[in-house]
Amino acid sequence: MSLMSKLLTSILIATLTLSAGESANEKELLKYVKKHVVLNPQVEVKGITVIEKTSHPDIPDWNIYLTTIDLVYQGKEMKAPETIFVKDGLAARNLVNLKNGKEYRNEIKPTVAEKFYDDAHLIFGNKNAAHKVLIFSDPQCPFCQDVVPDIMKAAEEHPETFAVYYYHLPLLRIHPVSDVLTRVMHVAQHEGKMDILPKVYAMKIDPRETDTKKILAEVKKQTGYSVTEAQVDAQAVKDAIKADEDAASELMVSGTPTIYVDGKWDKMRNKYKEFIK
């Protein structure tokens, strides 16, 4: 069982009366989390950060707090995303529409801050383009393979329309091969060889492969890109992938592909098409 899986077994949906009426501060939210959310005594709650306070048109009377919880589990520091709904002194981790089954915690993500649009993550398009597309993805994710290369192509063909910013989020429990593949992609990005990125998405490779030599040999064979073990094993590369994963936590991203257009979460992953004539 993974660290996050163990953590999830300690979580319980609950409601709590808050003293602040229709609003809440971080101190009250932290108290709620400690008492009703993280119930595993082995998990220490260090703090909570409110990323954004927002609302949803279906439930306009509820204040929605998008937060990250700072945790320590078995000596390891972690950040866990949490959505908290507050109204009339009550708090809950989720609201469900009984008519259509919509779970509102799955309908909301934070707005992307300007700091995430940096040159290091720009892969296609002009940074002054009319629209910014930000992507969290894994090249072995089948859903990513259906969507992400098309977005890359759109930005390559319409550089004044789209600026595409890419963040690596390898899902290693599902396909461990992505560990090396994402580092290969990062090295290619750093070298300015953006054409390699969609080629990695098109690779046919055993998703359970973990032998770096074999993976790099397949990369060279299938994409024509030659990269060494020393390059992909460099600490700076590993740190960059970790920073991308931290960015995913900050934006409450839990799956791939997660796509934002002009700072807003694009649940259907196709909004970019609206801007292509």
Task: Write structural notes for this entry.
With 277 residues, this protein is an alpha+beta fold. Helix content is 31%, strand content 23%. It contains eight helices and ten strands. It has helices spanning 3-8, 26-37, 142-157, 178-190, 196-201, 212-223, 229-232, 235-250, and strands at residues 15-17, 43-54, 63-73, 76-87, 90-92, 122-125, 131-137, 162-168, 258-261, 264-265. A five-stranded antiparallel sheet has the order 1-5-4-3-2. Strands 6-8-7-9-10 form a five-stranded mixed sheet. The radius of gyration is 20 Å and the shape is globular. The chain starts with a helix and ends in a 12-residue tail after the last strand.
DSSP E strands, number: 10
Strand order of the largest sheet: 1-5-4-3-2
Radius of gyration: 20 Å
Strand content: 15-25%
Q: Count of DSSP helices?
A: 8
CA-based shape: globular
Structural class: alpha+beta
**Sheet of most strands:** 5 strands, antiparallel
Give the averaged pLDDT, no decimals. Answer: 91
Cα distance, first to last residue? 48 Å
Stretches where pLDDT is under 50 for at least 5 consecutive residues are: 1-17
> What's the SSE pattern?
HEHEEEEEEHEHHHHHEE
- In helices, the fraction of residues equals 25-40%
